[in-house]
């Protein structure tokens, strides 16, 4: 069965989407006209029919492949293994890039043209695009008559480009599945399928050995690894071993490497490297350990709250708060008290910022869908990032992940401002009333107006946020959602996403409530939180220090806390606080505050205390500049503690850096004022988490 390049691309797009896709969306993704897509759909239907599937075409809603899941999987594999001689421009580009990246010697232009069955002029045009693509990795293309084609640049840059190619063009989960099942065809043709050529960058046997060793060290990490990060690490390591054995090594910033040595992830990475050195009988540099450490730091499934208490600078928290403030202002909806959003952003931004600075790149297979479903929110966050981090170029893949954090927070709030939907059906009564009732049950903030198809032309479509119809609306210029009168869960989610995309939110916040699935578990959680809350509030104090030197101040603070039985060993805690300061500055930029914090087995109970300095102190800030402080904030946490304690202390960290008002309170209020302010903030945090 012959499948054209465009038919194959259409099938691949439709197979990876769960919801309907419009012809317009397909045309945009394929970079062709809607008329061209309509023309190709006939061939697509014939191909689907041959394998027992069908194309469901719903006017006003879109198209979707329907049929049994096992048949869809069969078609996916068939497309993957299909031996085709015609390539889309994107596929050609991928094959050329792969060939150039893995080549040890220059490649002739005519050789590429012959292999890809196109003219030399076409390849020359493709090479212009290749140059544009690789420039993002600080690579260049050498094009010399009589010499050939060659990519020029550092080994680090080449590996980044290889990893990006693999993760962009191969589904992360299918990558391992396909290799394990050994279903990749052994083609003897001059050019294999694009996926085969990409998989040629990694040695399957090496992949198996590396996977075995990564599995062995996973247990040494105090958290679970996200699946996508796990696959990304395997790809990175397989490429690294391959290139090291070819004599290619990377360089890593010495100063940053030194700071990584204090992290748990570095210890695990070192252990993994030692195992790989034995397995492959090769020597692996400390620079490679640094890159593996970065992968592990970005691999955590972040469901805890310790990242602000250990090796993460609060500088990341400040960036997260600035993003939240910008988005809140732009969408007219206050998210500054959403601790879950704050924690999620901090967890994501910590490894993301280094990835961006080092141009490591990241794959985001959901990017297209995110841009479609949350278009307005995407633009807002893009603007927020540009204002907050003007010195960095943030790729769309990273912005897509940030959008997911904000979208999740907004959908969970459940109080979109009152929006107006126009409900259309053939008669204007009966089914439309049923649909309106169902809509209001699912989305209480949504106001609905019913109208018949005949009356639709008299309505001003722009007065409504959304149009929902039970029948196709051929002549309508505005987009609408075609649904069943009984509304499926899929359709409800589609409507919610569309409403969220309008970006207008209520000014007042309705505190989110927690779902009580297991009452006993929830009760224990409340008790743990209250216990930590009582310890922090009862131990809170504001004290003035007369010492002039930093070490003397810390000794005085720890002696006071020892006397109150907060800690068991003042010398140990002072030592750990100073070690923590060595890892990164503790001064909060733009304030007169420093947050000294540690998690130690010499700490008995969670504690947060404030110290006003009689003699201002000069210390290193979180952005590595020097700054003056007049206040030390001291946050201590036991090494062994509950998730709720970590959640509380992390929440306090977010309060400190929330805005100018809160930082002013900590650096200027007297003890009574500060105690009132602090207690009020803790009460709000508690209410947000536990009170309906």
UniProtKB/TrEMBL annotation:
Keywords from the named record: Activator, Repeat, Transcription, Transcription regulation, Transferase
Domain PTS EIIB type-2: 419-507
Superkingdom field: Bacteria
Domain named PTS EIIA type-2: residues: 534-681
Transmembrane segments: none
GO BP of this protein: phosphoenolpyruvate-dependent sugar phosphotransferase system; regulation of DNA-templated transcription
Signal sequence residues: none
Pfam family, one: PTS_EIIA_2
Keyword Repeat: yes
Domain PRD: 201-306, 311-416
GO molecular function: protein-N(PI)-phosphohistidine-sugar phosphotransferase activity
InterPro entries from the UniProt entry: BglG_antiterminators, HTH_11, Mga_HTH, PRD, PRD_sf, PTrfase/Anion_transptr, PTS_EIIA_type-2_dom, PTS_EIIB-like_sf
The protein's name: BglG family transcription antiterminator
Native organism: Halalkalibacter suaedae
């Amino acid at each position: 069965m012959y499948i054209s390049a465009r038919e194959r691309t259409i099938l691949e797009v439709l197979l990876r989407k769960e919801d309907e896709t419009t012809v317009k969306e397909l045309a945009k993704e394929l970079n062709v006209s809607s008329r061209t897509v309509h023309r190709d759909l006939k061939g697509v239907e014939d191909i689907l029919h041959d394998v027992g599937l069908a194309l469901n075409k719903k006017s006003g809603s879109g198209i979707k492949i329907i049929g049994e899941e096992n048949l869809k999987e069969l078609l996916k594999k068939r497309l993957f293994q299909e031996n085709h001689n015609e390539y889309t421009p994107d596929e050609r580009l991928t094959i050329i890039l792969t060939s150039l990246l893995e080549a040890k010697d220059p490649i002739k232009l005519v050789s590429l043209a012959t292999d890809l069955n196109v003219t030399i002029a076409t390849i020359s045009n493709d090479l212009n695009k290749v140059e544009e693509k690789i420039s993002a990795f600080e690579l260049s293309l050498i094009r010399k008559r009589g010499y050939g084609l060659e990519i020029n640049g550092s080994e680090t840059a080449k590996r980044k480009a290889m990893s990006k190619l693999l993760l962009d063009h191969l589904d992360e989960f299918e990558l391992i599945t396909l290799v394990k099942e050994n279903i990749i065809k052994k083609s003897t043709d001059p050019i294999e399928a694009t996926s085969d050529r990409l998989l040629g960058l990694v040695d399957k046997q090496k992949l198996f050995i590396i996977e075995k060793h990564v599995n062995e060290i996973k247990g040494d990490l105090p958290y679970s690894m996200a699946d996508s990060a796990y696959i990304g690490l395997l790809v990175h390591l397989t490429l690294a071993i391959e290139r090291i054995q070819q004599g290619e090594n990377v360089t890593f910033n010495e100063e940053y490497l030194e700071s990584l040595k204090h992290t748990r992830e570095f210890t695990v990475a070192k252990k993994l490297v030692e195992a790989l050195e034995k397995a492959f009988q090769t020597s692996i540099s400390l620079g490679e350990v640094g890159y593996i450490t970065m992968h592990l730091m970005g691999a955590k499934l972040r469901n805890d709250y310790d990242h602000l208490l250990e090796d993460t600078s609060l500088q990341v928290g400040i960036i997260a708060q600035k993003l939240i403030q910008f988005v809140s202002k732009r969408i007219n909806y206050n998210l500054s008290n959403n601790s879950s959003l704050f924690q999620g952003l901090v967890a994501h931004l910590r490894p993301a910022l280094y990835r961006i600075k080092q141009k490591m790149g990241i794959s985001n297979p959901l990017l297209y869908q995110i841009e479609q479903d949350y278009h307005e929110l995407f633009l807002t966050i893009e603007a927020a990032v540009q204002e907050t981090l003007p010195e960095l170029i943030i790729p769309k893949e990273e912005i897509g992940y940030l959008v997911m954090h904000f979208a999740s927070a907004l959908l969970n709030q459940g109080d979109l401002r009152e929006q107006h939907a126009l409900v259309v059906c053939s008669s204007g009564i009966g089914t439309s009333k049923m649909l309106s009732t169902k809509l209001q049950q699912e989305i209480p903030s949504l106001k609905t107006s019913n109208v018949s198809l005949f009356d639709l032309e008299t309505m001003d479509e722009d007065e409504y946020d959304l149009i929902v119809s039970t029948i196709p609306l051929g002549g309508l210029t505005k987009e609408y959602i075609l649904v069943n009168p009984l509304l499926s869960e899929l359709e409800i989610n589609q409507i919610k996403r569309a409403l969220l995309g309008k970006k207008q939110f209520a000014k007042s916040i309705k505190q989110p409530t927690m779902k009580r699935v297991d009452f006993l578990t929830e009760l224990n959680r409340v008790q743990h939180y209250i216990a930590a809350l009582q310890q922090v509030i009862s131990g809170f104090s504001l004290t003035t220090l007369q010492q002039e030197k930093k070490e003397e101040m810390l000794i005085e603070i720890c002696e006071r806390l020892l006397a109150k039985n907060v800690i068991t060993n003042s010398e140990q805690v002072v030592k750990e606080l100073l070690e923590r300061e060595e890892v990164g500055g503790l001064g909060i930029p733009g304030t007169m505050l420093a947050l000294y914090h540690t998690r130690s087995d010499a700490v008995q109970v969670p504690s947060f205390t404030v110290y006003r300095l009689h003699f201002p102190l000069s210390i290193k800030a979180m952005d590595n500049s020097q700054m003056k402080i007049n206040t030390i904030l001291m946050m201590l946490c036991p090494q062994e503690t509950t998730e709720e304690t970590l959640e509380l202390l992390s929440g306090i960290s977010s309060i400190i850096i929330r805005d100018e008002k809160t930082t002013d309170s900590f650096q200027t209020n007297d003890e009574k004022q500060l105690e009132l302010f602090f207690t009020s903030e803790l009460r709000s945090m508690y209410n947000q988490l536990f009170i309906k």
